[in-house]
Amino acid sequence: MPVECDSLAAASYGSAVIVAGGSDRKKPLDNTSLFDWEERAWRKLAPMVTPRAYPCGTMDKSRARLLVAGGFNNKELDSVEIFDVKTERWLKGPAMPTARTKSGGAIVGDYFAVAGGDAFGRPTDALECLNLKTGKWETFPAMNSKRRRCAVVAVGEKLVVAGGLTLGDYSLDTIEMFDLRNRRWLDLPNMPCTRFGCGACVINSRMFLCGGNEKLRMKAYSNRLDSFDLMSHSWDILPSMAQRRIHPAAVSLSL
């Protein structure tokens, strides 16, 4: 990568990976870069308006837009920035109802859903969704657990939230799924171990979790790679990554 960092927003579009924000462990960053898988090369893009560590981000592929929400820059942020992939420009989006950092985001149906995170310095169970048709935020039923640094993915009209840290900095192994159709949360089978700060992506109907931390210790940084079948609700433990990572970005590519 052009800049060494963690806790960044990342998403894919076609054969490209776009990363934005993050932290170099000293300060929040406004950097935006694109990796072209076919050319195997990075190039810098226009920086964000606001440097931010621990934002959540996802790609609205139908509109070719990267949405980045919240994060931290001396305080928890409620601002939203939208990167137009075609014009390669950042646009201002409607602010979230709740300023927060260390949340997770995904496109579920016609919504940009933001779940969990830190609000006022404490883990939250909030689920707030930006209606991509009206451009307005809506508040949906809260999660069963308050959690920050959780993994969030979506498949169709279902949002899945896994792991994270809850009140008292207890690491979670629980998973819950929000069904957009009936607006209800359901519990899914627990992860193989407690985990927070991991990367997550979906390939077909499988959720992949990589890296993270199993306990609040430096030596607990993980190189685990697990997958969860969202149809059969079964877990598979896959070969470990070469390096241990916390707060990595994970995306799936269409090649």
Automatic annotation (TrEMBL):
Entry's Gene Ontology cellular component terms: nucleus
Pfam families recorded: Kelch_KLHDC2_KLHL20_DRC7 (PF24681)
Highest taxon listed in the record's lineage: Eukaryota
Disulfide bond among keywords: no
Entry keyword set: Kelch repeat, Repeat
Keyword match ATP-binding: no
PANTHER family named in the record: F-BOX DOMAIN-CONTAINING PROTEIN, GALACTOSE OXIDASE/KELCH REPEAT PROTEIN-RELATED
Record protein name field: Uncharacterized protein
Taxonomic lineage of the native organism: Eukaryota, Metazoa, Cnidaria, Anthozoa, Hexacorallia
